[in-house]
Amino acid sequence: MNKKAFTLVELSVVLLVIGILSGILLRNLGGFTSIARDQRRIGDLKNVSIYLSNYYTRQGRYPTVTSWSTLEQTLRDAGVLAPGMTLPKDPVGNKDYDYYYCSSTGGRISNYILRAQLENSTSQAPQLYEGSITTTPSGLSCTPTPQCNPNNNSVCFLF
Length: 159
What we know:
The protein is α+β, with helices and mostly antiparallel strands. It has one domain (about 35-159). The protein has two helices and five strands, in the order H-H-E-E-E-E-E. A five-stranded antiparallel sheet has the order 3-5-2-1-4, covered by helices on one side. The longest helix has about 50 residues, at about 10-60. The chain is elongated and about 90 Å long. It starts with 7 loop residues before the first helix and ends with a strand.
């Protein structure tokens, strides 16, 4: 009797080899997913900066709020966010980003800082974090005080 079929042992060996190779592949892709989430965080901050620019155009100033949820409501009340729209949240969990409004020496709300907590250090992919700051520039007073510390993987952008 001459059957041309795979034996159970041969199939088991093939499945074992596929499992080992897929495990190695998935393990190596793990670092790329955290970088992708960091890129999304930075993209989220840039999108929020567009909303805030729109708010500035309509109101002539930046919002003077200190929480992400209050910022969302302020933008919604000003007509910048349509009903049902929300400000982005961190891709891991539902934690918020941070918003700090800054006044110049004359007391005018002239700038703002947006902050996100990253999974990777800024030295791992420096091209992603171009334009980020680590300290508030002189002449600006921000409320609350920004926590822009690259040592704890946070990134801040001054607008």
